[in-house]
Batch of 3 targets.
Target 1
Amino acid sequence: MRHRHAGKLLGRSYEHRKALYRNLMIALIEHRKITTTVAKARAVQPEMERLITIAREDTPHARRMALSKLASKDAMRKLFTFAPQDYGGRNGGYTRITRLGPRRGDGAEMAIIELV
């Protein structure tokens, strides 16, 4: 039973899952829209929402927290340039997931996750 075990495992170890989330968040910050599976999009959405909430206030502590999640200075700088401007007056709901249908190769349900 999985009682009180929050979050999706995605068939990966903790380190692999953490790296996957980091790479998806960096790609989302750089491109503002990425195509991935529905499971990965739904798993990374709360992490991205928390990161944007942190980036709304541009303080050294917020930058350190974001850098610990991202591990990419370029992505962190880009996040801190657009997040306060675009999402300063918005209380959550920074991302949108749109389903695309099954992938041709293996039938995995695909989705687009984008910054609103």
Note: The mean pLDDT is 95.
Target 2
Amino acid sequence: MPKTVVKFGGSNLKCKEDIGRVIQVVKNYKQPIVIVVSAFFGITNYLIESLEKARHDEQVAKATTNYLYNLKRETLELHIEDTDYRNSILLEISVLLDELEKYLQGIALTGDASPALEDHVLAFGERISAVFLNGILNNEGIDSKTAFPESIGLVTDGEFGNASVDFVKSTGNVREALASELVYVVPGFYGVSPDGKTTLLGRGGSDYSAAAIARCIGASSLDIWKDVNGFLSADPKIVENPVKIQKLTYNEAAELAYFGAKILHPRTVEPLSDPHIPIRVFNIYGALEVGTPLSIVSAEKTVSKGIVKSVTYSLDFGILKLKGSGVGAKPGILAKVTTALHVAGINISSVLTSQISINIIIAKRDLSTAYAVVSAIQLPVVGKLQVTENIAVVAAVGNGIAENYGVAARIFTALANNGINVLMSCSGASPIVSYFLVDINDCIPAVRSIHQEFFETNIV
């Protein structure tokens, strides 16, 4: 019988009660599972800060490992009464922390860290979590074992910071390594390059690594435990009474994640769509029944009554504008720009063009670099290069958006009725999403306006 891969995130590991819920969930599966675990809440950010401080302060190494040791010791004391067993887990954690301290000390001595060293340091949060959780599970009578990516052969393409799993090289290794009838605890967030170096799978990449492992072992499902009630029609922090979405396709889930929904890493569906492995979403603060997911992502296509299933937003994008008469019609302009941005390692999210303007949508963190890169290119027809940061991208997602007339009109009308100006829009690039660029101050009102139109009125 295929195993289930179960992902617990940092939001599931905040306090003593959270650990208790995780233990109960694992027991409720009543069969061996593969657990993929993130770093404890806030630890990755802490390691990022420590790594930066270590470049200038040799005291940071010891302070960092002392903090992490005491944090885990205090948490273990809340869960394990047996002193000897507790100390055996702390010894395993200490071995990892000693290694971490040496790397941070090396950074202090040189004042710098290579991308390979940065990836290795930032993966310690997940490694420590896996040792901790494995110890807790064994203490609860659950037969479990840690399985690190380097030991199970989760091989990547070797790109530091944002690697992809190489399934040709990984599948056989991982399937064999996780074949025994016991619970495995795998640290997420990273794999190893072909030459054995730690490579991170992107920020928030534990979802993706869990999906990759699910594909490798042919899992029955990937179960993701969150602190929200599954996929919703909008962010519950913004709208009142959002509607739960019980069924989504892989593409719908991917688009929602891409345009800002935090429930899944955008790359989670990549490994699972071809083998049709479903993603089941649960709330760790709700009922802990493993047979009743709140949302299911699968190949099953459903069209909601109002077409739109969810409205999401992102503040992470900006625009690089190339202006000039005829710039949109001049052959080779866009090719030169996109090639230069590719060489600089900058991903282009979208391009919208007209006769006098080329608008390139990219991550805000890349805007200044992109401006410098494009400024260095000889582009005679470009009269002005401009960066726009104060925007938000609002997206409406749902199967049938491209095939059903009137959906875009309803969105524009809802925005206009609330005095919201659309700076740019795109429909048709994907058959299941329409997205709009608005001023950043109009972001929340825009989400509320669209949500009200499709979910809070009698119009269908």
Note: The first strand starts at residue 5 and ends at 8.
Target 3
Amino acid sequence: MDATPPHCLPTDLVCLSHLRWDFVYQRPQHLMTRFAEHRRVFFVEEPVFEAIPAPRMDVSRRSDTVVVVVPSLPWGTSPEEAIPIQKAMLEELFEIYSVERPTFWYYTAMAMAFTSDFDAHRVVYDCMDELAAFKGAPPEHLAYERDLISRADHVFTGGHSLYEAKKALHPSVHPFPSSIDVDHFRAAREALPVPADERGIPGPRVGFYGVIDERADLDLIAGIARLRRDWQLIMIGPVVKIDPDLLPRADNIHYLGMKSYKDLPAHLANWDLAIMPFALNESTQFISPTKTPEYLAAGKPVVSTPIRDVVQPYGQEGLVRIAATPEEFVREAERAMHERKTDRDWLDRVDAFLSQSSWDLTWGRMAELEMLGAIEDVSHRVLSTPSGAS
């Protein structure tokens, strides 16, 4: 790692996540695997509902220090009934693993419903997305988020737009935009074998990977495919929260499903252009796409819709081209692919920009903030101990 970790992180870490560990590999996994180098991490997911007679807690390991916890609840369990069940499961987990006063690390404020009574050493809210604006968000999310922010020692945000929205709500709010594992994606700059499911697809290949949901501009994707029928649009990722039948269909649009994190460089290596065709709506107002620096580390030209955290800094730095309509997207894509072949300085500028960020550096700074709070807690207790007290 290129960051210097704190020498003694004080407690176990319990991560409450709306994302599943074995889903798309992104911010929670990047950070938790780094924390797990120094402490135990319990990754607690949202419940799954199954045809089972009674609740069950499924516990499995992803490493010696990463434990994934999935509550399985019977079909028909109401949200109100789920709260005490999840609380009891967490109490059981803590007893089995001898967890005492852990750091609670929240990605979803909804977990406050069953964790607010626990004695936490530290509370961190890593607000990677404005989940209240997502499709199907529970109406009580905002109330739980207010409660979480009031209890948190630190609030981290997944980008600068979210930071601007949250900075007045807490005295310790810190922006941590999407970061990058440069070495992993830089491998895509070399000639890698074409993945099996792309071998029969001719070029030019224009690719996207990520979750395909209400944040995708389906009309834009259809328009690009219609305007440039010689381009092959490669769409990688799971389809969630939208009807798959609504996806645009054409001979030059290819949905390849979900891929593992380790396989992404091989796909990127064989693309001519990477795209971010996000819709401009409530669910994308505060996003800071992790794929932006990943695409760039792979050495691919990138075109994106005008997402605020892409326009600034990537668009303003001349690293990503910005377009809103199918016509603009095609024009900027043609310019980007030409630039990649002719502008020898472009890749140097990309590398200089990416050198300022990494998941190691992001994790290190987060850990320092948590550690600082822990040291302050200890110092306060020492200073508050009456003379002669043990």
Note: The domain at 13-179+358-384 is CATH 3.40.50.2000 (Rossmann fold).
